[in-house]
Amino acid sequence: MSVSSTSSASVVTTGSSSYVSSTVSGLDTDSLVEAAVAQKTARADTIDAQVEVNEAKIAAYQKLQALGTAVSDALESLKSTTYSALGSGNAFDEKAASLTASDGSTATDYLAVDVDGEASVGQYALTVTQLAKAMKVAAPAADASAALGLSGTFTLGVEGGEAASITITEDMTLEDLADALSAVSDDTGVNATLIKVSDSAYRLVLTATDSNVAIVGASTEGDDILAGIGLTGDDGAFADVIQQARPAIITLDGIEISRSSNELTDVIPGVSLSLEAATEGATITLAITPDYASVKTAVTDFITAYNALRDYITTQQAVESDGAVSADAVLFGDSTLRSMSQSLSALIGTRGEGDIASLFDLGITMNESNQLVLSDETALNNAILSDADAFQALFETQVKTSDSTLKLLANTSSQSLDFTLDITVGDDGAITGVTVGGQSGLFTISGSRIIGAEGAIYEGLTFALGGTTSRSIDVTITQGLADLLVNQLDAYTDDAGGLLQTRVESLQTIDEDLQTRAGKIRSDAENYRQVLINKYAAMETQMEAAKLLQQQIKAILGNTDSDS
C-alpha cells in the first residue's frame, strides 16, 4: 500500500485501487469516481461486445471451412486428380481381386493376392507347383557348453553375397560359436540357431535368410572349424542338408514362372502374389475387376460429408417459432454463406446428358432439408455395375484431344468446352503463339505450358505440349460433377485466398483494431480516474483547511466576546 498526501487528505493506493482517505465534504468520492470512469469505459464495453460477435462469426466461418473441406476430401476419390496419360488414381482406377479354386477348396489357403490401380482387368488360371525354400544345414548333436578345442578362421555367406570371416579360439563353446555367427548374420545372410535335441545335446542349424540361395563356407586359417563340428565332410560339402534351397514355381495361363521368393510382385503389373502352399492339382482362377465397392463407398462418403455441411448451413439459417433468429445462427443473413449454399445447390441439381446425367439417376434424392438421401440403393448398384463408363463420366472430368502430346495438367474451371488450339512453334522448338478461332490473348505461354488467360473462358486450364512442331489440336473438356463441386468449394474453403478465409482474416484484423481501441479507452479512463482522485483529494484538503480556519475564527470571536 502506498500513500500520497495533499495537506491532510491522502490518496491511498492498495494493489491497483486508489481512493481518497479523508472525506470532510461528506461526499461519496469513490462512487463519483467510479461513475465518471464507467462513463468513459462504456464505449470500450461496446467494443468488447462487438469483438465477441466477430469471434463467434470467425468460429462459424472456420467450421464452415472445415465442413466444406471434408466434402472436397470425400470427392477426391471421384474427381480427376490428374489429367495426364498416367491415370487419375481415384476410386474408378482401383481394382479388386478374387480367387477361386477349381476343386472347391479354399483358394486363399494356396496364395494371397493384392492389386493396385496399375492392374488390368482380366482373368488368369494359376497353379502353384512348389514354394521357394531357404537352405538349411545342421551339425551333429553336441554339448553346447563344452569347449570346442578348435582354433581357426573360416568364412560363411551365401552364393552371390559377401562372406564374413569368423575366428574361433580353443576355449569357445558351440554356444559361443552360435553367438558369433548370429552377430554377423546381417552380413552373411545366414542365421544360426541352437536346437535342443535332448537334455544335454544341441544341434547347430544354419538357415539362409533368403530362399533359393546356397549357403557356402570354407576354412581359411588354422583348424577346419566347420569340419571339426561336423557341419562339413571330408570333401568340404555340408554333411547334413536338412532343406535344399529351391525357387518358387507357378504356372500362369500355361506359362511356367520361377522366382527366388514366395512373394511375386513382378509377374503381372499391379498384382502381388504371396504363395502359401502348392495347389497339388487344383487350378486357381484369379479374377481382377474394377473395385466397385470403393466407388460405392466414395459416393456414400460424399453424401455423408455433404449432409454434415448442409446441416450446419441450416443451423445458420434457423429461426425460432416466434420468428426470432436462433441464438446459434451467428451467420444468419450472411451473404457469403448464402452464396455458398446457393452455388452448391445449383451444382447438385445440375443435369448433364446421357443415361446417367445427375445424382438422381443413381437413386439419390434430396429431402426437405436439402440433404442427399440414397433412397434407391439398387439403382446405385446397377449404375456402378452396368454402366461404369457413364457413371464415371458423371463425376470425373473427361478430356479428349486430337493429339496425345497435349496434356491437361490443371483444371480449376467450371466450363465444359469444345475448341481448337492453333499452336505456333518457332525454329528453336519453343511455343511462340496460341490462338483459338484466330483470336490471340486467350492463353499465355510459359515454356511448354499453355495457360488459360485471366478473364478468358479458358481461365483455370493449364496444358503441357510435347513436340516441336506447329499444329492445330482439337480439345473437348466435359466437366464432371465432382470436379465442379471441388472447384466451387475450394473457392470458399481454400485457406490461401478462399472467400471464407478472406472473411476470417478481415474480421481478425478488425478485432485487432477494436481491441487496441478498447485498450486505449480503458488506459485513458484509468488516467482520468487518477486525475479525479487527485482533484477530490485536493478539494477535501481545501475543505478541511477551511473548516479549521472556521474553527479558529470562531475561537477568536468567542474569546473577544468573553473579554468584552
Note down, in words, how this protein is organized.
With 564 residues, the protein is of the alpha+beta class. Among the domains are: 95-132 and 248-290, no CATH class; 136-243, Alpha-Beta Plaits; 292-297 and 310-395, no CATH class; 398-478. It is 35% helix and 28% strand. It contains 10 helices and 28 strands. The strands form 8 sheets. A 5-stranded antiparallel sheet has the order 4-18-6-14-15, with no helix packed on it. It has a 4-stranded antiparallel sheet with strand order 10-11-7-13. It has a 4-stranded antiparallel sheet with strand order 21-28-23-24, with no helix packed on it. Strand 19 and strand 20 form a beta hairpin. The longest helix has 65 residues, at 499-563. The model is unreliable at 3-8 (pLDDT under 50).
Draw up the topology in text.
Layout: E1 2-6, E2 9-14, E3 17-20, H1 29-75, E4 95-101, E5 111-115, E6 122-130, E7 136-138, E8 152-158, E9 164-168, H2 174-183, H3 185-188, E10 190-196, E11 202-208, E12 215-222, H4 225-228, E13 241-243, E14 248-252, E15 255-259, E16 263-268, E17 271-275, E18 284-290, H5 292-315, H6 335-348, E19 364-366, E20 372-374, H7 377-386, H8 388-395, E21 398-401, E22 406-411, E23 417-425, E24 431-436, E25 443-446, E26 449-452, E27 461-465, E28 471-478, H9 481-493, H10 499-563
Helix pairs in contact: 1-5, 1-9, 1-10, 6-9
